[in-house]
Specification:
mainly alpha; two-stranded antiparallel sheet; 9 helices; 2 domains; 159 residues
């Protein structure tokens, strides 16, 4: 899928065109689901990845985030609970990533201890995981069945 290229004005016009109100006129800005789920490129060349909570649900389990964090009681307890009900609304995704950055040394140490290596994430992966941890509807679908066998073994204390 090819990323769309958008100017800031076009994004604003598109948002206004679908009935959302600008941030200036409303305290809580509204963004369309199509823009958040497809990603886009700003006029200055910065790519905004898709915030895909379905992909994020799969990555949260497969990458091993679930070993230390839990969603709705499923997963580890060594790190903060990431259930959507605990998340600020609205939340700037870059602020969430900055908070992860500040905790990176501890997270990396835990990943190496629990998983045997540091988790590798692309920007698209991170956007998807951030979308998942902020999406109550997608989190309601999260279950033990989402967790790959190798990650289940780690959660259960096996090798």
């Amino acid at each position: 899928m090819q990323k769309k290229s958008w100017t800031i004005a076009a994004v604003a016009a598109g948002i206004a065109g679908i009935g959302a109100v600008s941030a200036i006129a409303q305290e809580t800005p509204q963004v369309s689901e199509p823009l958040s789920r497809s990603g886009f490129v700003l006029e200055n060349g910065l790519a905004i990845p898709a915030f895909d909570p379905v992909k994020g649900r799969k990555l949260f389990a497969a990458k091993g985030c679930v070993v230390c964090h839990n969603i709705n009681g499923i997963g580890g307890e060594d790190a903060p609970d990431l259930s959507a009900g605990h998340m600020e609304r609205p939340m700037n995704a870059f602020d969430f990533a900055a908070k992860m950055w500040r905790g990176a040394p501890a997270m990396i140490a835990m990943q190496e201890d629990e998983l045997g290596e540091q988790i590798e994430l692309t920007g698209d992966d991170l956007a998807a995981i951030i979308a998942f941890v902020h999406d109550e509807k997608e989190q309601a679908k999260f279950s033990q069945a989402d967790i790959p066998e190798n990650i289940k073994a780690i959660l259960e204390g096996g090798d």
